[in-house]
Structure formats: structure tokens, C-alpha cells
């Protein structure tokens, strides 16, 4: 469970750093992401213990697809934070756990207890209640975030099942692909490089890499049907806390009730 806790901690750091770094309209998110993926790729490379002569094509293929979804999902996530707020964006993003959980149960015959299933249902209900009445345009962005996050997270489980070498090698290919695509977007949009924005990305890169690393280590210990909902609900709760104490966000009575429902879901998920 320690890996889940560490992944939650890093994930919440990412959410808050993104809000800080994108608060100024002049900051280019792609330059920030450039530093982010550069650091994450280099860190993954130097912590990898698999010789490159033992690289399997599946490592490259899964890593490359994961890298595409990582970058795209990050851009969608950033957009949602701007138009839908931090807590709602994190909540909807984490509700996408439904995608990898269903596939884990169907494809890999994972089993969970009835109380754990009830916990998943409780968490999903809380996310649905949280959406409230939103503009159709905003709902479309939330739905897109749901789909891309679920697909991105699925690649972690796919490598956990079909990957040949170390986790860090997979992450190296994933973050390198994101870095390459990020550079292409910068050239296409003719964005000017800025060292300050790049340094923001370097700061963001460490928790970004560690979030994925710790969660993939957790998948080696826990079934996906438990690891995904525990991570998702925990991230939502901690993000709520940071919203209250750091960003001084005022929540309604309904949102307080939802917070309690999520807490109940976490308890049910952790019953063995």
C-alpha cells in the first residue's frame, strides 16, 4: 500500500503545480511540458537497469502508445482545470478507473470481494453527483478527459501483464515519445522557448515520473481492480484538502456530503 500512498502524493503535487504554473496567461504549457518530459525521460533512463541490447519490441510499442496518450491527456487535463476547476477535473479524471477495472476483470480474470465492488460503485456515484449542472461544452471536455485518462492508465496495466523488462525502461520510451511529440507541437505552433517555463517543467517532471513508477509498482502487488479505485478516490480526497487549505476554495454542503461518500468508498475498497 506504500506505493499507492506515494503515487497519490505525487499525483496531487502535479495537480497543484499545474495550477500554479498555468495561472499566468503568458506561460506556455508546451514549453513547461517540454521540461517535464525531458526530465522524466532522463530520470527514467538513468534509473533503468535493463541493457538496451535486451530491449523487446513490445517495450517500444507499448511505451510509444502510452507516450502519445500521456501528452494528449495532460493537455486535456490542463484545459479542464481552467474551465471546470481543479477538484472536478481530478474527480472526473479519476472516475475513468472504470475502463481499466472492467478490462482487468474481463481479460485477466481478476476477482474482488463484494464489499470492494460496493466501494467502486460508491466512488463512481460520488463522481456522478459531483458533476452537477454543467454547460454542454464543459461536459464534453470532461467526457474527453474521462476517456483519455482511462486509456492512458490502461497502458500501465498492459505493461504490467505483457511487458518484458523493467518499469523504468517502459517509462523511458513513454516519456521520450511524449517529449518528441511535444517538440513537434512547439515547432508547428512556433512557440518561443523560455528558460523560466522550461524550469517549471523540470520541477513538474519528477513527481510526474514517480506517480507512474510508484503506481506500476503497486500493480505488481495489488490487483488492478483494487489499485485503481484506491488511487482514484484517495487522490480526490487529498485534492479536496489542498483546495480547502491551499487555494481557500469554499465547498457547498452537497460537496461536503460527496466528500463523505468518497471516504466511505475508500473504506469499502480497503476491506480484505
Indicate the overall shape.
globular
Rg over CA atoms, rounded to whole Å, is 18 Å
Count of discrete domains = 1
Number of strands: 0
Number of helices: 11
Mean pLDDT: 85
Sheet of most strands: none
- The assigned structural class equals mainly alpha
- Beta-strand percentage range: under 5%
General description of the model:
The longest helix is centred in the N-terminal third of the chain and has 28 residues, at 57-84. The protein contains eleven helices and no strands. It is an all-alpha fold and 272 residues long. It has helices at residues 2-21, 29-46, 57-84, 86-95, 98-107, 114-131, 136-162, 167-188, 195-219, 224-245, 253-269. It has one domain.
Q: What's the quick description here?
A:
This protein is an all-alpha fold and 272 residues long. The protein has helices spanning 2-21, 29-46, 57-84, 86-95, 98-107, 114-131, 136-162, 167-188, 195-219, 224-245, 253-269.
List the helices and strands and how they pair.
Layout: H1 2-21, H2 29-46, H3 57-84, H4 86-95, H5 98-107, H6 114-131, H7 136-162, H8 167-188, H9 195-219, H10 224-245, H11 253-269
Tag the structure with descriptive keywords.
about 270 residues; globular
Amino acid at each position: 500500500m506504500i506505493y499507492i500512498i506515494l503515487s497519490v502524493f505525487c499525483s496531487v503535487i502535479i495537480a497543484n503545480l499545474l495550477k500554479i504554473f498555468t495561472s499566468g496567461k503568458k506561460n506556455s504549457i508546451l514549453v513547461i511540458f517540454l521540461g517535464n518530459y525531458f526530465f522524466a525521460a532522463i530520470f527514467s533512463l538513468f534509473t533503468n537497469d535493463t541493457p538496451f541490447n535486451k530491449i523487446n519490441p513490445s517495450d517500444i510499442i507499448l511505451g510509444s502508445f502510452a507516450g502519445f496518450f500521456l501528452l494528449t491527456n495532460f493537455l486535456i487535463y490542463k484545459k479542464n482545470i481552467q474551465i471546470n476547476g481543479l477538484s472536478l477535473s481530478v474527480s472526473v479524471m479519476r472516475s475513468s478507473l472504470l475502463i481499466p477495472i472492467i478490462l482487468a476483470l474481463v481479460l485477466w480474470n481478476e476477482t474482488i470481494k463484494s464489499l470492494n465492488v460496493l466501494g467502486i460503485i460508491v466512488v463512481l456515484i460520488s463522481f456522478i453527483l459531483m458533476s452537477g449542472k454543467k454547460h454542454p461544452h464543459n461536459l464534453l471536455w470532461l467526457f474527453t478527459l474521462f476517456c483519455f485518462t482511462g486509456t492512458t492508465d490502461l497502458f500501465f496495466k498492459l505493461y504490467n501483464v505483457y511487458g518484458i523488462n523493467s518499469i523504468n525502461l517502459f517509462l523511458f520510451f513513454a516519456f521520450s515519445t511524449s517529449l518528441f511529440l511535444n517538440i513537434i507541437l512547439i515547432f508547428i505552433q512556433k512557440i518561443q522557448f523560455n528558460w523560466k517555463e522550461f524550469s517549471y517543467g523540470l520541477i513538474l517532471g519528477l513527481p510526474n515520473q514517480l506517480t507512474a513508477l510508484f503506481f506500476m509498482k503497486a500493480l505488481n502487488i495489488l490487483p488492478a481492480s483494487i489499485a485503481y479505485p484506491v488511487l482514484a478516490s484517495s487522490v480526490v480526497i487529498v485534492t479536496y484538502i489542498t483546495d480547502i487549505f491551499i487555494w481557500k476554495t469554499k465547498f457547498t454542503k452537497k460537496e461536503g456530503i460527496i466528500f463523505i461518500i468518497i471516504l466511505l468508498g475508500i473504506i469499502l475498497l480497503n476491506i480484505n
